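Minutes, methods subgroup
Present: GH (chair), OT, SY

1. OT presented the first of two proteins processed in the latest run. Sequence and structure tokens recorded below as shown on screen.
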Amino acid sequence: MKFIITLLIVSFLLGCSTEAQVYPKENWSTNQNPSQSGWSENELSSFNRYIIDSTQITGLVIIHKGEVVLEYGDIKENSYIASCRKSVLAMLYGKYVESGQLDLEKTLNELKIVDHSSLLEIEQTATIGDVISARSGVFLPGSNGGDFRRLAPERGSVEPGSYWLYSNWDFNLAGHIFEQETERNIYDEIEKQLVGPLQMQDWDRSLQLKNGNLSVSKFPAYHMWFSTRDMARIGLLMLRNGKWQEKQIIPADWIGEITTQRTSYKEAQKNAPVLKEDGLDLGYGYMWWLIENTTDYRLKNAYSAQGALGQNITVYPEIDVVLAYKTKSDYRRRNSIQTQMKVMQKAVEIYSPNNN
């Protein structure tokens, strides 16, 4: 009798483990009956209609418990993911922070960082940790636009680490620091840490190119091109705390670090008032946006990689869901930030596990 009870317990635990850790292999598997998992067919259809009628999104997937519950548009085509690149870079930092090769306390002075404009003495005390949390206090222009530098206070007026500003100078420098300290090319490292282990289906190394006006700043933007379904693999890796199948790809502690609040939504909105209009209250970690101040349990502890035009990877840990969508710029399509926030909300508002 004791042996039978033990077998039952082991079987139960194995069943729970299997359910909690579902991964795609060469291809994603599709939930053939999403209504039994809390996804009403009518609600999914209505959400799909919303995407068609009210957004410019060109590809979207919702992943629940490792399986596709909704697919829209072309999820295979590679295209520019804009600022989602920053969140991908944050993931790559993990193994090197863990090994000590990247020391987050190292200062810009120790790193010998020099741009066209010399750094002020106070700016040289900024650390790598300040840079990857957008709190360096260095308000130089980046080699590419699309940030909040226009809202920056006077140079030298704040202590590094004390003030948040979404600045491409910080983000591009984060890429330079990664390559300088690890002696690894960012794109090669994406292949090593992500593309191979996650069995990405659409990665094309030839598309990956750095760009920027190097007469403005010496540090180029490390632009990236991914497909929607490969972005979903990145989201699922985050959801599984850096683990893929039986292998720990990104240190679990590092996943916790990059999604830990470094800037509250209140501070972010104070320094960039335009964020008050977005529709969700977003704080900031290490190059990942954090959903805060929500009463919807489905959004609790959720976090997101976001890019211009409509590029997004959002992870909802409380309900085991990943949302990935993109808007291909070649089609001259664009979504407002407000639309992107609505999609992030609507995608999980249609999930109701008590009504399955």
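2. SY then presented the second protein from the same run.
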Amino acid sequence: MTPKERLNALAGAAFLMATSAVGPGFLTQTAVFTEQLLASFAFVILASIILDVGAQVNIWRIIAVAEKRGQDIANDVFPGLGYLVAFFVVLGGLAFNIGNLAGGGLGVNALFGFDPVTGAVMTSIICITIFLFRRANMAMDKVVRYLGALMILLTGYVMIVSQPPYQEAVLRTVAPLELDILAIITIVGGTVGGYITFAGGHRLLDAGITGKENLRYVTNTAVGGIITASVMRYLLFLAILGVVTAGSSLDPENPTASAFQIAAGEIGFRMFGLILWAAGITSVIGAAYTSVTFLASFHSSIDTFRNYWVIGFIVFSTSIFAVVGEPVTLLVLAGAFNGLILPLTLGSILLAAHNRKIVGSYNHPLWLTIFGFIIVVLTAYLGVRTLIISIPQLF
């Protein structure tokens, strides 16, 4: 691999993880918390970055030294555990992929006025076209990089015109007036929960960037992915903060769209449509690609014909959305289980980190292990809490 090819693969992995996190739910979640916590949400973002980095660096490093996918490592820790992990990751990936397609459809609707289902089908066709290329991984890397950069630039523009209180935001980043622990853990789950934390790690594995000799690149890329997603969140937070501190109320039906429209008028609304579409399509790519890497453990032919399986995953998700619409029950259930995926996957990775049969002569830093187990406990608590709250909503 040439230095240029390695750099492209590293950038692609970072942006694949980041854009997988920056989905339609990410946009709405950020708007809702900003309106609730105002400038103090800056502290939530900072705290979540620290926890996100702890989770992601642990997982990516062990994937690199074990040279195996997350579910295969889990199977080595405890036979059958990896299949359980794969089941939950794929279930969550499917459910949220339907939501991502819905977001893509709504983005097209905001841009051109097309029916959201038509917009979702158009989004799906573009994704399928990407995976029809012979070098689909390279095409995927470029698409997520360019669209990720586009989302950051457009959000940055809206942030400037909304004129947020920058000094207050900086102050509250370290001295919040209100501390919301559940908001922190919720943001962590939305950034590195479910399939998202494995998206870039599995991409590096496919690119052959593994082993102890590449740990520096792996660690830097893991941190880079979190920083990229967090830059997008902070810009979005500032853009919305400028609107709400000016006295405007957000539309509860679509808080982010209303914030962009209030800040920048009709142009802002169209920009929101483009950002929502870009968030939707990049998240569809990330969810489909990563979910199929988890399915690969069930049969070798899935890896052999991976691109066709990714296409099938996208087609299946689109069909459900087109026929049924957004399945609220499935999303509620998947969201509840998704909260339990991170502690399950991170916990198994941490157990593998000190197993010589899995990592060989590699010595995993003790502080990373301790930090990782703290994250496991915190996210497990939220996952159980979310499950208890969500299941009654299904009946």
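Chair's summary of item 2: The chain has a mean pLDDT of 89.
Next meeting: continue with the remaining queue.
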